[in-house]
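Researcher: Sequence recovery benchmark, item below. Answer with residues only.
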């Protein structure tokens, strides 16, 4: 471990860590409620990946600020508490959450349900907030506890909220119209297609709960979730194409009301429960992966006939139309100009000293804002110097901030939200002279990136079938990475958009078995992480496109890369690249220069020409 990592670990183990007092307060509240434990997820009423500040209960309670995790606190301190995360966060959780207070459930073969079954005891009643969990989760947890005689019980009110005295209020940011000229299809047409889908299924209505689905369906955007332009809202769409939108009136400026029109009835956000009650006796579609248990229970209590089907907007949102794709391409060229300017700045300033992770991330955001088109970042930038780069979803703070030091690697994973597209790109650069090991690992990651970028595959291929291409060169050395290789990306929506995904299929991981279709946008981001030393990731976004193959007996697909920014040639071991791989890098860099060159000044272009010159040239 480095000195910095030791500092991070000691910070998590401080006796004055806020988690101690907050967990004790929660236990006192649980005792008053007469329950033996409570589950605290990162979630909201929409089962969102990224949630508003008001819903950051896990972070407030434990100090863990990753985007995926769940804790359980047992009322009896002697029985303990635990926090479960995935492989992306196994180092981060140890840095942020006190080990003596929470057990870490983060290794293969360990689950939160398993931990709970082993600690709760017979007769234990474990509470959960039905507005934060899906019915599949409730069933799985209940089944896991049944053999030990414990049960899951829904609570009337969330006990964390009772002790979180300064909890933020939900956002009241106004909605904005996403113009048809950018969306490529009007909201009325989208709603009509949902209505046709309902008629085909012989259903009366569907409840749309995912925030990005509501935003896409109504061609609106919001600012209620940091970095994700969505409004807090629910919708019910009927078979005749009419709809109800549940969003507070204070958030609706006149132009949005005019845009929604008479076919959309608007009601306050909290009145969704009355909208559900009004579906009594109706045949209603709900998406079990995106709908909380409370909504399903309310429909059942009202006497609705529930059909569990995937949200009908999911695939149309993922398979983007030509207008959306053109917008994504334009956004990425614009964004690539800002990133290229930043990479030049970093290459000149970092070796001098005085640049740290926060300064670097701030400078990159400044370059993006200078485009005049940036609305927001698409996520908090992962600005990781040296060993912090090995934390896959690291978030820099004043306490963890490191300088960019000579002889180290710097990883910057960042993106922007523009009205025409969402970007997500990672570059790893050498500060000074990299080691041979760094160059070897970087080149292996690059070879995997190229293998995926150039893949040609038959229609019907799933993301899990392509994942090995990105990992095989690392596997040859007995190393790997603990995150997926690719995720879907929205158009001025969520930077993580399903259902498509490229990754290992173990355990039926969500999205990896989704068939890839032309028009989908995904990331291509293999990586390597050496704990305590450095991290490497190369990420571009790609569009699934049709490919012509001579003599093909099947319809074939491939990828079009739409991210344009130079790849650090100082980290490439040319002897490890084949001729076709070198040509891919040269062709890619030539396109970077063609597309991004006009967006930078003369000095920046001279630098860009040098770093985009063919490999092997002086």
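Model:
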């Amino acid at each position: 471990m480095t000195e910095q990592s030791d500092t991070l670990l000691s910070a998590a183990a401080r006796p004055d860590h806020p988690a101690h007092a907050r967990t004790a307060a929660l236990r006192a509240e649980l005792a008053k409620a007469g329950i033996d434990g409570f589950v605290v997820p990162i979630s909201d009423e929409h089962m969102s990946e990224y949630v508003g500040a008001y819903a950051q209960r896990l972070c407030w309670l434990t100090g863990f600020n990753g985007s995926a995790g769940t804790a359980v606190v047992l009322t009896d301190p002697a029985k303990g508490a635990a926090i479960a995360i995935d492989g992306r966060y196994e180092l981060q959780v140890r840095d942020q959450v006190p080990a003596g207070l929470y057990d870490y459930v983060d290794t293969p073969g360990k689950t939160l349900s398993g931990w709970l079954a082993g600690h709760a005891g017979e007769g234990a009643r474990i509470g959960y907030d039905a507005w934060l969990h899906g019915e599949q989760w409730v069933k799985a947890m209940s089944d896991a506890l049944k053999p030990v005689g414990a049960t899951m019980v829904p609570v009337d009110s969330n006990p964390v909220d009772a002790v979180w005295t300064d909890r933020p209020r939900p956002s009241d940011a106004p909605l904005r119209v996403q113009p048809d000229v950018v969306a490529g299809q009007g909201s009325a047409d989208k709603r009509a297609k949902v209505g046709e889908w309902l008629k085909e299924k012989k259903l009366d209505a569907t409840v749309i709960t995912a925030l990005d689905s509501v935003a896409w369906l109504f061609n609106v955007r919001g600012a209620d979730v940091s970095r994700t332009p969505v409004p807090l809202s629910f919708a019910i769409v009927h078979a005749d194409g009419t709809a109800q939108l549940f969003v507070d009136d204070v958030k609706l400026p006149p132009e949005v009301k005019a845009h929604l029109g008479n076919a959309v009835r608007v009601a306050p956000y909290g009145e969704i429960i009355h909208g559900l009650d009004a579906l009594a006796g109706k045949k209603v579609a709900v998406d079990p992966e995106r709908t909380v248990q409370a909504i399903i229970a309310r429909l059942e209590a009202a006497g609705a006939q529930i059909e569990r089907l995937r949200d009908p907007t999911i695939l149309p949102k993922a398979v983007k139309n030509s207008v959306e794709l053109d917008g994504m391409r334009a956004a990425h060229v614009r964004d690539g100009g800002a990133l290229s300017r930043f990479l030049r700045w970093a290459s000149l300033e970092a070796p001098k000293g005085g640049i740290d992770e926060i300064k670097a991330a701030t400078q990159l955001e400044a370059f993006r804002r200078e485009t005049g088109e940036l609305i927001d970042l698409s996520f908090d930038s992962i600005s990781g110097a040296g060993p912090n780069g090995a934390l896959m979803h690291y978030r820099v703070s004043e306490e963890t901030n490191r300088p960019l030091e000579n002889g180290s690697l710097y990883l910057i994973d960042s993106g922007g939200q523009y009205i025409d597209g969402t970007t997500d790109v990672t570059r790893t650069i050498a500060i000074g002279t990299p080691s041979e090991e760094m160059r070897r690992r970087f080149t292996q990651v690059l070879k995997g990136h190229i293998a995926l970028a150039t893949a040609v595959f038959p229609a019907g291929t799933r993301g899990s079938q392509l994942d090995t291409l990105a990992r095989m060169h690392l596997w040859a050395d007995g190393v790997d990475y603990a995150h997926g290789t690719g995720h879907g990306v929205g158009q001025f929506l969520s930077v993580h958009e399903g259902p498509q995904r490229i990754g290992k299929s173990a355990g039926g991981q969500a999205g990896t078995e989704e068939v890839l279709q032309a028009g989908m946008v995904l990331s291509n981001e293999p990586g390597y992480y050496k704990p305590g030393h450095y991290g490497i990731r190369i990420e571009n976004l790609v569009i699934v496109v049709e490919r012509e193959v001579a003599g093909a007996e099947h319809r074939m697909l491939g990828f079009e890369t739409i991210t344009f920014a130079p790849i650090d040639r100082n980290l490439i071991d040319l002897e490890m690249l084949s001729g076709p791989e070198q040509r891919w890098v040269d062709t890619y860099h030539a396109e970077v220069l063609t597309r991004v060159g006009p967006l930078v000044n003369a000095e920046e272009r001279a630098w860009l020409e040098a770093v985009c010159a063919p490999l092997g040239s002086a």
